[in-house]
Design goal:
mainly alpha, ABC_BtuC-like, 14 helices, globular, 289 residues
């Protein structure tokens, strides 16, 4: 099943893919914490469908696919952010957007006369084909996303845990929500380029969900989530070099295995009263000025 002959030569050919995977792992691991805390896994799936439709449209028109993916993601993020303020409204908006985006994407791919590999790459990822322009785009988006998260990390954490108390203490809860959705949309757009629209949840949801199974610490949840995402992406790429399958199944299998292990560990520790003690330590409130 695995053949590691000439592994060093293959590794040198995929250095762009490894760098892209590492950047995506860092972004996905960090923003996934807020996706879980704000109950947005369904929104991630909805945004990825519109991102897929945007990328498919730009592929059909002969334009930059990455730009199309970003346009689709931002459009979906803004629609969800504006129309889906309440959880019930958000779910219904996403439920409407998902089939619409998927249908548009399938239509654009059906009309595309080019190679079939480009079509499936948008759905299942094409990390082995990351070229210098794509890496440049990913690096630029990573700087924007990580910079935005660094600036609004603490107030966003507070607003995600308890929005009413955060608003009462002067945190701009309403302003943070659309800004976060834009940052999420950018991250989803880049993830679609790597693992495809169908598997984006494996990077933006599973690592954070696994980390929350073993700790409730405001420090260790993002640290473990990022480590898990990096192991999933980079580990999947390194394994795929010696295997005969596409990269995506390796990434999703590693990510799912980590979640299973964390779930087992978390269940064992919860029986000893660990969860309550750790949760009591959590205080995301900003320091008084």
């Amino acid at each position: 099943m695995f053949n590691f002959d000439n592994y060093g030569e293959l590794l040198a050919l995929l250095h762009n893919s490894i760098i892209a995977g590492a950047l995506l792992g860092i972004m996905g691991g960090l923003i996934g914490v807020f996706v879980m805390m704000r109950d947005l896994p369904f929104a991630v799936h909805g945004i990825s469908e519109l991102s897929f439709a945007g990328a498919a449209l730009f592929l059909l028109l002969g334009l930059n696919v990455v730009v199309g993916s970003v346009v689709g993601s931002l459009a979906a993020a803004l629609i969800i952010g504006v129309l889906g303020v309440r959880a019930r409204d958000r779910s219904s908006v996403i439920g409407v957007l998902m089939p619409f985006g998927l249908g548009l994407g399938v239509l654009f791919l059906a009309l595309y006369p080019g190679r079939s590999a480009n079509k499936f790459g948008l759905l299942l990822g094409q990390i082995v084909a990351v070229d210098d322009p794509q890496l440049f785009w990913l690096g630029g988006v990573a700087v924007v996303v990580l910079g935005a998260l660094a600036i609004m990390w603490r107030p966003l954490m507070f607003a995600s845990v308890d929005p009413e108390i955060a608003a009462a203490r002067g945190v701009p809860v309403r302003a943070l929500s659309p800004v976060f959705m834009i940052v999420l949309g950018l991250t989803v757009a880049m993830s679609v380029q790597i693992v495809g629209a169908l598997l984006v949840l494996s990077l933006l949801v599973t690592p954070a969900a696994a980390a929350m199974r073993v700790t409730a610490s405001a420090l260790w949840v993002p640290v473990l989530s990022t480590v898990f995402a990096l192991i999933s992406v980079v580990g999947g790429i390194l394994l795929a070099l010696g295997g005969s399958l596409p990269i995506s199944p390796y990434i999703t299998t590693i990510s799912f295995t980590i979640w299973l292990i964390c779930r087992f560990v978390g269940a064992q520790r919860a029986r000893r009263g660990w969860s309550r003690r750790e949760a009591d330590r959590f205080d995301p409130a900003p320091e008084p000025v």
